[in-house]
Amino acid sequence: MLDDLDRRILRFLQSDPTAPLSELAERCQSQPATVARRLDRLKGYGVLRGLHAVIDWAVLGYGVEVSLRFTLDKTNSKAFDEFLAAARRIKQVIAIQTFSGRVDVRLSVIAKDMPDYQKLYRSEILNLPHIAELEALMHVATLKTAEALPL
Amino acid sequence: MSAWDDKDFALLRALSRDATQSAGVLGRQLGLSQPATWRRIKRLQAAGVLAGRRVDLNVEALGFGVTVFLGVKLATRGQVSLEDFERAVTAIPEVQTVQHVLGRYDYRLRVVARDISDFERVLRHRIMTVRGIGDVEANVLLSEERLLGPL
pTM (2 decimals)? Predict the structure, then answer.
């Protein structure tokens, strides 16, 4: 399905998503027309799903980021659905992940400062339904964030 | 913070959904001219609000069937240099993100693997061999959604 050229294209695209086609082709040692065709094909296969802006929340004034890890009360069969629906309504939640493991759901939340976080925590987070356990990991620094796949 | 108005936020929302849209297309949605839109994008980039672009790849289609989040506690704090530990884990290709956190764990790692046995190989031979690693908790990712947050 994917050959070496496809992998090279995806590798370079991951490292520099906004590179113009000509540069991408040059770095992959190929021709722009060939690379354009391959990109279309990768989109057609659903391998390449899109390009999204990365927002630096700290620059927008949200200096606090916290990972909230929840264990839910699974005796209620609607626990997951109701919890997720309520979490999606909280403005300061920027990501929701579900897991198999000790942790069921993780929310990434942002706040302007600690008083703002405390307000969010007390008035919105603790009101989420079906929480059995909750723990917080406060982000200090992100050292690697490429999320690039080792292709 | 007040440097940004509603149009800037609308632009960030649109680019978070699809960053391939041209300034012309975005401008039409927002009732702005193409040059005015382009200037706003440049300003958001220069300020660092728009930190970059992220390629959305279908990880399963590329053969990475498993994403695992590891909570890592350092074994002997003070004796192992954080820099050495950080250098070693960020150098592992399967480790996509490394975050320094405060709480039950010291670090949070996002790891991709082809399948569970491949994950076991990465964990045993690459991660558990890093000097200073202590307690490790693994949670297998089932689903993930990114939200627009306060935008």
Answer: 0.89
